[in-house]
């Protein structure tokens, strides 16, 4: 096997050797040792948002989208439910699409991809349409890397007495969400992002009261968070086959997260990666897409080199040959590429990636700055 490249992508990302090692064992899904891992994991995840005593952590099989869909389907009533989605990127659009597929009424507030959601706009929309029951907000919009002002929006939603469902997939564990200060009904995230586990399971941190009220809302048997929660509390087991190796590895990743220093340390490491990346590529003539004030330290969108010789694929292949996997852009009109700040980047860290991009720009004669 060749040495695998570091993943500079928004999940899956490069996980530690210790986390990989923890998957070299089989577990019985009914076994008490395994169920103790599930219980510990649920507690640990809840503690990250300080939700002990007020919220419940309900794990769900599948990728992150499965948990977003489960949260909407379980918490938003089928008949009278109406979801407001402030939308500034592809993951916001995905939530609106989930609502449509599930037959939940949805209204969007549409923004440009480089504009933050504004709490005033949410306030006005809730004032104008009292039939809205929930707001679904993406915390860090991974399609660009923009950070939305969660806390201010949460206060507005709470003031109107509506439910807030947060897609915190790419922020959970690295950017603060504190249930004691920021009111929400549900926060959705997954194993394979900032907590640096392998992909394969998601989880929803739900406030007890709306969770208790959600019985019978779900359109789906497998995606019913209420049922998963009740069954898990009664039996300590997952309702259907759990992703055992992923659960064990996620538990190991969470232990390392705590050892590293939790949210403060994880957030600081990503912020350092992000600065090194933006400064390093700027020196090579590559500009980032977002203003620094609204850039989350998770993933960065860069304008592609302006040289007409540029195409993403050969650029990507050449950087990959130097040990780093980049990510394509997701903007509708501009030619861009993305670089993630998450994961275990090895001893050379982000500096190694910046160096690789510099070498490739010279090799492919794409450089816009003199050598
Ligand atoms: C990764 C991500 C998801 C989930 O994507 P999956 O491919 O289903 O894991 C949802 N929302 C955001 C903001 C994400 O970054």
Task: List its traits.
single chain, 371 residues, alpha/beta, Aspartate Aminotransferase, domain 1, Aspartate Aminotransferase, domain 2, 7-stranded mixed β-sheet, 3-stranded antiparallel β-sheet, binds pyridoxal-5'-phosphate
In a few lines, what is going on in this structure?
The chain has 371 residues and is α/β, with parallel strands linked by helices. Helix content is 39%, strand content 16%.
Q: What name goes with the CATH superfamily of the largest domain? A: Type I PLP-dependent aspartate aminotransferase-like (Major domain)
Tell me the structural class: alpha/beta
Low-confidence stretches: none
Percent of residues in helices comes to 25-40%
CATH architecture of the largest domain: 3-Layer(aba) Sandwich
**Domain module tally:** 2
State the CATH topology of the largest domain: Aspartate Aminotransferase, domain 2
Assembly form of the protein: single chain
Number of DSSP strand runs: 14
Q: What ligands does this structure carry?
A: pyridoxal-5'-phosphate
Whole-number mean pLDDT: 97
What is the number of helices?
Answer: 12
**CATH C-level name of the largest domain:** Alpha Beta
Query: In percent terms, what proportion of residues is strand?
Result: 15-25%
Gyration radius, in Å: 21 Å
The largest pleated sheet is described as: 7 strands, mixed
SSE string: EHHEHEHEHEEEHEEEHHHHEHEEEH
Biggest β-sheet: strands ordered side by side in the sheet: 2-10-9-8-5-3-4
Distance separating the two termini: 35 Å
